[in-house]
Amino acid sequence: MVSMRIDGLDVQAEEGWTILDTCRFYGIDIPTLCHEDGLTPYGACRLCIVEVGEGKNAKLVTSCTSPAQDGLRVRTHSEKVVSTRKMIIELMVARCPNSKTVQDLASKFGVQQVRFKPKYEECILCGLCVRMCKEQMMSGAIDFVGRGKDRRVTTAFDEKSDICRTCGGCMYICPICELRCQGPEPPGVICGGCLDMTPTCLDHYDDAQCFMVESGCGTCVRESKKVKEKEEER
After folding, report:
1. At residue 105, what are phi and psi to the nearest 5 degrees?
2. Strand segments (E) across 63-160
3. CA dist 91 to 3, 138, 144, 192, 204, Å?
4. Non-local CB neighbours of 38 within 8 Å, separated by 6+ positions
5. How many CB atoms sit inside 10 A of residue 30's CB?
6. pLDDT of 29 strictly over 70
7. Sign of the dihedral through C-alpha 87, 92, 95, 101
8. Confidence band, pLDDT 50/70/90 cuts, at residue 214
9. Could you tell me which CATH number the domain at 2-77 has?
């Protein structure tokens, strides 16, 4: 067993587990987009970042590709982690604003504006379709080509593949194929009509103060204000 600390809690992980595996085992919610059980970890979307280490030595790593190790100190919802995730989601929205999956992430993390020019692409380059085709369908009909801004997913020589099984697995797993509620021509880049679950305690503390980050309860902040007001009245 591997002994480590996550958000101040001493935990144990099985040999071979990643930080993401360990967090999920203990019920700590970490968003992912390019990760899927049964497929090789890829770490492309960067949404699963966590802060590892303490003080000046702390760094951001992708939890899906980082192994659980003895003595690790992990923070999953520090102010730095949450703000970086929001920036990543903002970039994703700018690239693929028509994706309902990406829009839902934006709503969940309180992303209300996009400071980048929208591109209206049809691929987030998460690699899910490529890995699905190779590892689950045993085909390998599609793959990445090009680098940097020219990187894309296609078949060999951009021609119809003879080994494609037309199974639809690539479309099934794609997070961009599901269009947002307003359809292909929405009124704005950001929808934001579904959820707003930003942890309110991050305005007062360096970490989320509980694991209810999906509910955006704000109870701890409200209660602390009440206590302070009562003390001032006395």
Report:
1. -65, -40
2. 73-75, 142-145, 152-155
3. 35, 32, 20, 15, 26
4. 135, 136
5. 19
6. yes
7. negative
8. very low
9. 3.10.20.740
Span 150-155, average pLDDT: 95
pLDDT tens readout for residues 102-142: 999 998 888 988 999 999 999 999 999 999 999 999 999 99
The pLDDT of residue 219 is above 60: no
The domains of the chain are located at 2-77, 127-174+199-233
Distance CA 100, CA 159 (A): 29
The residue assigned the tokens 């206590």 is: 227
- Which two three-digit tokens encode residue 119? 């591109």
Alpha carbon distance 226, 208 (integer Å): 19
Domain 127-174+199-233 = CATH 3.30.70: yes
Please give the Cα distance from 10 to 169 (Å, whole number): 39
171-205 pLDDT, tens digit per residue, is 999 999 888 877 667 778 888 766 555 666 677 77
Beta bridge partners of 61: 50
Q: Which of 40, 183, 177, 44 shows the shortest CA–CA distance to 101? A: 177
